[in-house]
Design brief:
The chain has eleven helices and eight strands. By secondary structure, the chain is an alpha/beta fold. The longest helix is centred in the middle third of the chain and has 16 residues.
Length: 316
């Protein structure tokens, strides 16, 4: 099974997750910029985070055989914090970077006037930069939030085919289906959607413009929920080609509109001592002798990256 997870927050995950994902068939992903759980207090905390998404995290994923892309935005929750809103002024610099394949997550959290302003401004940025837009629908009053999101999309003039409305469920899918936007579903262990419910939606509404993601983050979530959904599809009678359409071709088609997807295959984890800004995913040098104590003595004080060519983030 070949998997492209179109919404997963890998900055919140461990290298064990990367190894499990690669073994499950994940070869590419998109990491949307989002709220970290702890409120940010200034624009600098956003720029450091954005730099990590386009730099270190892209490098880290590649060490485990997975192509990493991201989306950049002021998230809806923090659009309500005046300490954060000036980040809108620096977004254009990041939207021009390689690996940035959409503006997102944008949309609504509490449906406030401040969220309206940030949503409208960032849809305009998506149009200006000719990028798709990833829209977050609120966890509360989801029907109203989805309708309001679609109204904002229509008013912006952006092509609906360049917009994905995320975190949908059985009560919101038809609204988005009729709009021409793409439909995305987050498969969670306890909340949002589960694999069996997702299969029923696919049976009823078809496979076109459908994205399935894990949205795994720092909360209780599972980066292999995409795999579990593919397995549930097969068990329900869908073909392998159907599964490939939903878990690979659809996200490639949507985010491919950015012109920035990189999908050539990488080997899995090989233990190479490549570095990014002097850092490696290897936590210290590998033991080379039969006696770990001797190896430790031999390498004590040595630079684990000595002799390795630094890998730098590519910029446009």
């Amino acid at each position: 099974m070949r998997i492209f997870d179109p919404h997963i927050h890998m900055t919140s995950r461990t290298t064990d997750d990367y190894e499990r994902m690669y073994a499950a068939g994940v070869r590419a992903l998109v990491e949307p910029a989002f709220w970290l759980g702890q409120p940010r207090t200034n624009v600098g905390s956003f720029t450091d985070y954005f730099d990590g998404l386009i730099g270190w995290e892209r490098f880290r994923a590649a060490q485990f055989g997975i192509r990493h892309h991201c989306t950049i935005a002021l998230n809806p929750k923090e659009a309500n914090d005046p300490r954060c809103t000036d980040v809108l002024q620096v977004l254009p610099r990041y939207l021009a970077k390689d690996g940035v394949v959409a503006v997102g997550e944008i949309g609504y959290d509490s449906m406030t006037p401040a969220e309206d302003e940030a949503f409208e401004a960032q849809l305009a940025l998506a149009v200006e930069h000719q990028l798709p837009a990833l829209v977050h629908t609120p966890h509360r009053d989801k029907i109203t939030g989805t309708r309001r999101s679609l109204d904002m999309v229509r008013a912006s003039g952006i092509d609906p085919a360049c917009v994905v409305i995320d975190h949908l469920n059985e009560v919101t899918v038809e609204l988005v289906l009729e709009s021409g936007c793409w439909m995305a579903f987050s498969i969670y262990p306890d909340t949002k959607m589960d694999p069996d419910r997702m299969v029923k939606i696919l049976q009823r509404y078809g496979l076109d413009r459908m994205l399935v993601n894990s949205a795994a983050d720092w909360g209780r979530s599972d980066p292999l929920r995409t795999l579990r959904t593919g397995e549930a599809m097969l068990a329900a009678g869908f073909t392998e080609q159907d599964v490939d359409a939903v878990l690979w071709h659809n996200p490639v088609a949507f985010y491919g509109q950015s012109g920035r997807l990189v999908l050539d295959e990488l080997p899995g984890f090989a233990g190479a001592a490549e570095t990014f800004a002097g850092n490696s995913v290897l936590r210290g040098p590998r033991a080379t002798g039969a006696d770990p104590a001797e190896s430790a003595d031999a390498t004590e004080g040595a630079d684990a990256t000595e002799g390795a060519e630094p890998v730098k983030a590519r910029t446009r």
